[in-house]
Amino acid sequence: NVTLGSLNNTSDCSTTAGAGSVINQYSNFTGITAPLLSRGVSYPLAVEVGSCFSSYTNFTKVYIDYNQNGVFSDPGEEVFVSGEEYGDNTQASSITIPLSAALGTTRMRVITAQVYDPSDITPCGNYGYGETEDYLVTIEVAPACAQPTAIVWLSGTTTSATFSWTAGGTETQWIAQYGAPGFTLGSGTITPPI
Description:
mainly beta, 7-stranded mixed β-sheet
């Protein structure tokens, strides 16, 4: 499963994707609706890795072609590298879209491979065992109010919570949205400015 913004795609060992796909090697998911990602905003990323045959050491990398030149090896385009994992696992992180990212639709590549060193994964490499999946994302202008970063939960109870964060710009007030675990953004309760 690959989740980023509104993208939430699950596939398994028998999934055949779009044109050019090769089962258990490469999946072209560029036909899926591209999530909208705003410059300067941080988005949660999750990659769930499953085993098709046996469990071995694996690493996962994610690339986004921010300058839209068709190459994923430019500086800053490797946006995620997992730690060493074994067998079925879920990798979670966040990606902040740079303010310099070209606007419009571009390609994102997710690679999980049975390797013993993450440097063995390259955007256009071949792997004995693994999967490369391509998606599209659409980069849009930064929102009028920049999103804070480095959000840290400090303490909480069943009725309150305390957080710290780093301002995303020169803002002095923020609103927060909350709900039951796993709620969809836009459906939570919005706080008054804090």
